[in-house]
């Protein structure tokens, strides 16, 4: 059921410099949130500074994935600018407990602002994993209607080793224990990609074939390992987020 009762759009903050990847990410969030495109405003932080963001103009903020790593030891001037812009918005969201959903890179950037320990101990190659919802997660409205265990897509060089102070673990994985958590009541981050399905995952793999997340010759085996998985299950997270915070 599409989310129709919206008076304020959501804001997607994109950091992917590849137009193909940025456009596809936008389309995926629109599709999985089941909202009309005019209710998801995309700002390409990779292209230009954000400028002032008035949170009250939006129903919620979404921080997408990207090629950056918060733990990069030698950050480019471009990455520093992007992170500075995002940090300002994220810090205000946390201070106000304003609805925010961060996926993949969102874990690194939101976690860094909130005081999490982010490092490369729990990195995962691109592929499909199964995550388990915690007892606290089963009671969270963003995970409403989800099975206790579900498959999802990951692919990251860094991850959360220790939660931010006061955060609540909502879903865990085997190789990477922290897969989803909540800060305060309305700030959510996932290490996995709830916006992706098989076709969009394949396209994403193609875009980042030479980015060091996997060996190019592994492409076919990665896709084969995900064959038969129901990757639509975790899409419900984004519908729940949109449905809860649309206003």
From TrEMBL:
Residues 55-202 form the Glutamine amidotransferase domain. The keyword Metal-binding does not apply. It holds the Pfam family GATase. GO terms for cellular component: cytosol. InterPro entries: ChyE-like (IPR044992), Class_I_gatase-like (IPR029062), GATASE (IPR017926). Keywords: Glutamine amidotransferase. The keyword Nucleotide-binding does not apply. PANTHER family: GLUTAMINE AMIDOTRANSFERASE YLR126C-RELATED. This is Glutamine amidotransferase.
């Amino acid at each position: 059921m599409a989310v129709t009762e919206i008076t304020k759009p959501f804001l997607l903050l994109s950091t992917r410099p590849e137009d193909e990847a940025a456009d596809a990410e936008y389309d995926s969030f629109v599709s999985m949130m089941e909202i009309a495109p005019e209710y998801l405003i995309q700002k390409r932080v990779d292209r230009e500074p954000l400028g002032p963001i008035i949170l009250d103009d939006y129903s919620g903020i979404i921080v997408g994935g990207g090629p950056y790593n918060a733990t990069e030891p030698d950050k480019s001037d471009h990455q520093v600018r992007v992170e500075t812009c995002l940090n300002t918005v994220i810090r205000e969201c946390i201070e106000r407990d304003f609805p925010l959903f961060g996926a993949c890179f969102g874990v690194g950037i939101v976690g860094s602002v909130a005081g999490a320990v982010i490092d490369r101990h729990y990195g995962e190659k691109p592929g499909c994993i199964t995550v388990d919802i915690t007892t606290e997660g089963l009671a969270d409205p963003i995970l409403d209607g989800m099975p206790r265990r579900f498959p999802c897509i990951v692919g990251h060089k860094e991850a959360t080793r220790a939660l931010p102070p006061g955060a609540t673990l909502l879903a865990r994985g085997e190789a990477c224990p922290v897969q989803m958590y909540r800060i305060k009541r309305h700030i959510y981050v996932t290490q996995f990609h709830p916006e992706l399905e098989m076709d969009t995952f394949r396209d994403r793999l193609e875009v980042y074939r030479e980015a060091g997340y996997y060996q190019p010759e592994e492409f076919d085996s990665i896709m084969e390992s995900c064959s038969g998985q129901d990757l639509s299950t975790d899409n419900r997270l984004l519908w729940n987020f949109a449905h809860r915070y649309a206003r």
